[in-house]
Amino acid sequence: MDGHQDAETWQALLGQLIAQPQERARLSEAIHVRPVTLQRWAEEISRPREGNLRALISNIPAEAYTLFMHLLVKDFPELLQERLPEERFIETIPSEFYARILSNLALTPRALYRQATQDLLLQQALQHLDPNREGLSITLAVCTPPRAGQKVRSLHEVAGLATPPWPYHLTDKFLFLGDESLIGYAVVHAHSITIDDREGMTFFPAHWTEHERSAAVFPILRQARIAGGLIVSSVQEAFFTLPRMAILEAYAHLAACMFEAEDCFAAEDIELNIMPAYTLQRPYFAGFTRRFLRKYAEKSAEDGHPASFAQMRQLVWQDLEEVLLQVSAQAQVERTQPISEKEGK
Amino acid sequence: MAEAAEPSPERENTYVIDAENAAEMARLMRQEQIVTAGMGGIFPEQSDLSEIRHVLDLACGPGGWALEVAYTYSDMEVIGVDISERMIAYANAQAQVQQRPNVQFQVMNILHPLAFPAASFDLINARLISGFMRQEAWPIFFAECLRLLRPGGILRLTEIEAGMANKLYFEKALHTGIAAMHRAGLSFSPNGLHYGIVQMLPYLFRQTGFSLLGTKAHFLDFSSGTEAHESFCQDLELALPLFEPLIVKTGLATSQEWQELYQAGLAEMYEEDFCSAWMMLTAWGKKP
Known about the structure:
The structure holds 2 protein chains of 2 kinds. Chain A is α+β, with helices and mostly antiparallel strands. Chain A folds into 3 domains: 4-81; 95-269, GAF domain (Beta-Lactamase); 278-342. Chain A is built from 13 helices and 6 strands. Chain A has helices at 10-18, 21-31, 35-42, 50-59, 62-75, 95-107, 110-129, 182-189, 242-255, 278-285, 288-303, 309-336, 339-342; strands at 136-143, 155-162, 176-177, 193-195, 214-222, 225-234. A 6-stranded antiparallel β-sheet of chain A has the order 3-2-1-6-5-4, with helices on both faces. The longest helix of chain A has 28 residues, at 309-336. Chain B has a 7-stranded mixed β-sheet. Chain B is globular, with a radius of gyration of 19 Å. Chain A binds chain B through residues 88-90, 94, 96-97, 99-101, 103-104, 107-109, 111-113, 115-117, 119-120, 123-124, 127-128, 131, 133, 168-169, 171, 289-290, 292-293, 296-297, 305-306, 309, and chain B through 21-23, 25-27, 29-30, 33, 37, 71, 86, 89-90, 92-94, 96-100, 230-231, 234, 237-238, 241-242, 259-260, 263-264, 266-267, 270-272.
């Protein structure tokens, strides 16, 4: 797939595909054209007729399909006006999966519920959207609950799964996200966003990670109140086609099931701040477990029975958010200081 | 009529956790991934798979291992069976969305004769089935595997020994779970101090007509600071509460005592010097 990413035209991509003799023979047989005709299309000596074009679209290998269509519509813009052959993935969430989520909602004790639901949902969405493990990551971010009298000032990532080149569990990469982030923008405006190409121009805030070439974010709403969002990244350009966006949106809707009413916030109660650069955040997470255990021990001793892990984690997230907002504010002050003041003159 | 007279798989379910529970499904999906990664792959001990085409996965749960085989070896035909209708429905849905035409899942109780002709499979796999296998069930199970394998076919079983840690409450919680399994008749240990299955596997292979080809130990370290630590923490945060009905039923602790114990144990898992591991053994043998 990495090689296909270099193709800038559908002809170049076709040329890469038919460089393999087996693939050239397969396509030739499937489309009912001679191998030399494929070669002439790839070399831009001739162009496929309409019938050939449709046969070609139907027989492009699944792993190259998205990029091929992305490049093809540049050359044949009229294709955008019609219904193209379905992408090679199942365009609906199986009813069995809805049944599992609802069964979980009905029967699983509250203490286990959120964890079980997020595990089910992320695993299902990842396997559905990237069955051939070409490189997709899905991360769940939730609103950091504000303390009394405050508004929601950030989101934080709580779970993430991925296929290679990323590690399967994204637990080491959790961060706070604010107004500077794509998910922050999506949450504030309560709609999904996609960026097809990291090299392309965009007005949306985006911080690209290693291997990431396209991205999409989806707010998670429950009764029109915001709980958080799904952050999805792909190693492929233009991965987020309309059918894939529709599926991911359905998963974001389903994710609403995992939240309680108190986890969700009205738009007017959300005022995201700018969080520090992600490299600056990392060192502050080193003490997360120590803080969590201290809070757990204190609260358990105070109450005379074991405290809830989820509540204790939430308290630590709130403490960390406070610290990082101060770091962010300090960084902004330093940025706006005149040079003479910075140099102590 | 004959089928109607069969005992319901649901009523005969001896699994210690409610297999129909969605939280258990989520946990098993996570656990399957942890175990496969920790063992080094789906067939880490099998050097030659050229003769393997038809694979059966017993007690497949939500189908993680079977789906992984189907993905990695598109020329293999894989069938997974499990007692839980919901697990099987879910596993089939997974096969559908992952577009794996070479895998299917069926509801069957592996404590009964299975609805496949003799000599149907080249390889049979089962992992962590001691959670519902009484001592007397093992020889019957081996005999059925012998029937289902073609001559020269492989049976590979992977089981676990757990219960070692450097933290008091965590280890106590694990030992309470082991004692409950013992009281439920799900252990070969004479005194319930350990699961007692890994040392039995080679013996069972030899006693039941298989030619034992080898054993391979796996050390799944989930101490603080290891890559697997976070996943194990999340696995056990779901698993230990799900053990509660068995613990209470076997009279080892009240509900409140068990909750206090496992909560203290789970908190210890997050300490910086927490050390623990699962010892697993894969044993495999050939049908003569």
